[in-house]
Task: structure prediction
Amino acid sequence: MIPIIDYKNGGEKTIERILSRSQLDYGNVQEIVDGILTDIRKNGDKAVFEYTKKFDAVDIDKNSIVVSDEEIKYAYSQVKPELLEIIKKSAQRIKDFHQKQKRNSWFETSENGEIMGQMVRPLENVGVYVPGGKAAYPSSVLMNVMPAHVAGVKNIYMTTPAQKDGRVYPTTIVAAMEAGVNKIFKVGGAQAIAALAYGTESIPKVDKICGPGNIFVAIAKKSVYGHVNIDSVAGPSEILIVADGTANPVYVAADLLSQAEHDELASAILITPDEKLAYSVQKEVEKQTAVLERKDIINKSIENYGAIIITKDIMEACGISNKIAPEHMEICVSSPFELLPFIKNAGAVFLGSYSPEPLGDYMAGPNHVLPTGGTARFFSPLSVDDFIKKSSIISFSRDALMDLSDDIIGFANAEGLTAHANAVRVRKEGL
Result:
């Protein structure tokens, strides 16, 4: 049963315990991952094929590592037409939203001959990791790939483990094609991250790696950061709902459970000043959980990392939410937009009773790759900005440089960098 806690009596300790949870308590995983990274950096394809055989029980070689045109055609034949239409519709909505994030290069000039600006260019090569495991999540494919596609990335490579029959999930392939992936490689785990980071005979080295994965993938991404860029190391999923007495307890409970079903470390929190709502939601959580397929996972999640916290008023609830900085935040109050100015930290904010979190997961358009574990205090959702780079542009005439020459020379001398000062002095003196 999800616990009800008065914020004055134990609320802060409960929040601290929830925020301190981590899926990165990795024991000897780092040592295993380091070995895989070193092996693939040294032996390339040979090591990739060996690890794929060892961990996924799939035989691949240089001729079968890439998903073929025939396999893509087969995948489309295996996806029901109605699901294909849903994937296409979701892809278009995600594309439309991310198109609005695009930035343009810019320049500005002044009368004395200064030209300054910023040049915006997409990354050249991006790798997207897609988990295999027991389920396929085409929505995750769309969310990770589409911002890179919209940004103009030239080559988007996807890696994902094949099933025992050597094929990739049909929905994964179809979502990848609809989102703009150039090639799909049948490689998973830390070996896929290593191959993307260092390059092998078959898999090109990329500039950035994004996408979720298990503990081995997460640690591998952390370990190759610096050789390549990464999106983030995602933690367990979480939802926080701020609600008042006007909220529907059936809706609130359903939304809490929508995140609790992700895994046993997922967190689901309701913060409300209304005690009646709190107990109604508690009962509804228990009622709905009983008929859900993933109830074993849900029960462990809500018992360990779920909570209903009662506050003195709705503004205190907003303040607590800002401390937690949740991945997903729902505002279920009579006038949700009135509270929005007081929300400082959240990955995505869902306003009103008809904006449930799953809307953002699948069809709304904004990205569902969001900061977790309190990192919404300083991280943002995955976006087009993650797949571009910016260069500063500076061009000065002689007159414009001379206007600042004494300042530059003075600054450089103050820092003891006399060669810096000299580079301006020789131009000023005409030598």
